């Protein structure tokens, strides 16, 4: 029996999706708006987002639109 390893960005994406579903943030809000919600972990997530080509001004909807998190 093999288990599929979930990419950390999948987990982050699910957390952000949950924030959108709860109306805490909106899909058109910029990514920087979620910074306070992730507290001490934001520095890590911000670095990951930048590594994947996101800017903090990008809308949250762009993060949610990613299907597969590939690292090359």
TrEMBL record:
Source organism superkingdom: Bacteria
InterPro entries in the record: DUF4327
Pfam family, one: DUF4327
Name under which the protein is recorded: DUF4327 domain-containing protein
């Amino acid at each position: 029996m093999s288990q599929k390893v979930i990419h950390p960005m999948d987990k982050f994406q699910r957390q952000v999706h949950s924030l959108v579903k709860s109306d805490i943030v909106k899909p058109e809000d910029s990514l920087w708006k979620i910074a306070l919600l992730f507290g001490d972990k934001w520095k890590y997530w911000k670095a990951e987002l930048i590594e994947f080509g996101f800017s903090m001004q990008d809308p949250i909807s762009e993060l949610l639109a990613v299907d597969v998190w590939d690292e090359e």
